[in-house]
Structures are given as C-alpha cells and as structure tokens.
Amino acid sequence: LIDPAMTKLKLEQIDTRIAELRTSQASKKQSVERAEFLMPRINQAMAYLNPNGEIGENGLPVLNPNIANRFARGVSEWKQSDIYQMFEGNLNTIKNTMTFENLISLKEGGATFGSLSEGELRQIASLAGSLDPANPLGSLNTLFEIQQTMQRAIDEYDRNLLE
Question: What are phi and psi of 94, to 5 degrees?
C-alpha cells in the first residue's frame, strides 16, 4: 500500500508543476502577442531606413536618401512628411514597448524605483538599443536584432503548439 502522506506530497508536486507550466505558457503567449504587435512596426521602420534591402559596395546597407546624412535628416524632420512621421512613430512605439518590458523585468529582478530622473529613463530606454532617427544605421542594426529575436520566439511558440 502507498502511504497517504506520500500520495498527497506527489499530488502537490504535480499541481505545482502544472501551475508552473501554465504560467510559463501564458508568459510565452504574451511575448508572442507583443512580438506580433511590434513586428509590422519593425518591418515598416526597416523598410523606411533601407527601402530595397540593398547592400552597398562597402558592405553596409544603402540607407534611404531622406535620412542618410545629417542634412537630409534635418530636412525630413523639418518637413515631417507622413511617411517620416510614421517611421518616427514606429521607432517610438518599439522603444516605449521595450522600455516598459525592461522596467518590468528590472522590477521582477528586485529593483525598486523611486522617482526616476530623465537620465535614468534614458538609460532604461537605451536597453532597447539605439532606436533613434539621428542614427539610421544603428537603428537598422538594432531593428534587425529585435526582429530576429522576436521571430525566433514566434517560431518556437508555433512549434510548441504543434507538439
């Protein structure tokens, strides 16, 4: 015969494991939903920065001439065309979403926040990378890294659903 105390202990372990798996699955689903929200914005921003996906002779992406140099960026920023506003808005949405995620992650890690200074907010925002219209090549590289990471998360989630 099996000791009832032993059975109860095993059932508690099983319940704990089920709860852990549900939490893990919910977290993965939330990450995928966030990725699906951000991916179109990432793709649009990348398409604006490097419209045809071309690579120049120097091995670097060929940047949109409207943002390739400081003068062109100044003119684009001054004119505020619809497409430039959408590009800038996409960068801000991505950065703000990732900054919020970083704050949550830091909080879960035990960080406590009083009132954050502007510098501290910038430091946290920099965790999202160099998403800045004034740094088109850095923004493109960061967007590419974010895109790859999110796509891997989506692919893994989809594979786990099929299992």
Answer: -60, -50
What's this model's pTM, rounded to 2 decimal places?
0.64
Angle at 16 between CA 15 and CA 21, to 5 degrees: 95
Buried b (16+ CB within 10 A) or exposed e, 102-139: bbeeeeeeeeeeeeeeeeeeeebbeebbbbebeebeeb
pLDDT one-digit tens code per residue, 111-145? 555 545 555 555 555 556 578 888 898 889 888 88
End-to-end C-alpha distance for the chain, whole angstroms = 36
Closest Cα to residue 94, out of 129, 56, 47, 70? Answer: 129
Q: Which two tokens stand for residue 88?
A: 């800038």
Q: How far apart are the C-alpha atoms of 68 and 51, rounded to whole Å?
A: 12
- 16 SS3 class: helix
Joined together, the tokens standing for residue 89 give 């808005």
